[in-house]
Specification:
single chain, 173 residues, mainly alpha
């Protein structure tokens, strides 16, 4: 009668903490590793800009860090599957393209206009972030084109079928 190990009381706080910690399955995926790399490199770039003379450039890595963090937890907690009105791969593609371009430009500015060691380190991390975001948008682009080609193939088949039906009606005359 007495349950020795009730599920809710055996590990108090586990479900609340489990919501904050991403699953190992997600971290083992390519998307999880890319988002984690974006998150870490953006944070390191932000720290370098804060400690440098190029502190005016710190907003870019801060915004990208927060956006990558949100995207990381949205994918790991499957929040993206709950919001059906947003096409997440396209939103993620736009995020990665803009981040890669902005990181590249800001890193060029940091290299050319600032001479401090922390500014140069921030620029190097910015170039690394550019590469990581470029890899991510390349992967997303390939997934999007595969999805669109699969969607187009069914539409093409229907269009060819309707054209064949139209031509068969013309032949009957």
């Amino acid at each position: 009668m007495d349950d020795p190990d009730p599920p809710e009381q055996s590990q108090p706080g586990r479900s609340a903490l489990g919501a904050l910690i991403p699953s190992k399955e997600f971290l083992s995926t390519r998307k999880g590793q890319l988002l984690l790399a974006e998150w870490v490199v953006s944070f390191l770039t932000f720290i370098c800009y804060v400690s440098s003379t190029a502190i005016a450039l710190m907003t870019v890595p801060l915004i990208e860090f927060l956006w990558a963090l949100f995207t990381f937890y949205a994918y790991s907690s499957k929040f993206n599957e709950q919001l059906k009105g947003i096409y997440w791969p396209l939103l993620d593609f736009i995020r990665c393209v803009t981040a890669a371009i902005i990181y590249f430009v800001v890193s060029l500015v940091a290299v050319s206009n600032y001479t401090g060691g922390a500014s140069k380190a921030a620029a190097v991390f910015g170039f690394i972030a550019t590469i990581v975001f470029a890899i991510d948008f390349y992967v997303i682009f390939n997934d999007l084109t595969a999805f669109l080609k699969k969607g187009d193939s069914t539409e093409d088949a229907e269009q060819r079928k309707s054209e064949e039906e139209d031509s068969s009606f013309d032949d009957d005359d």
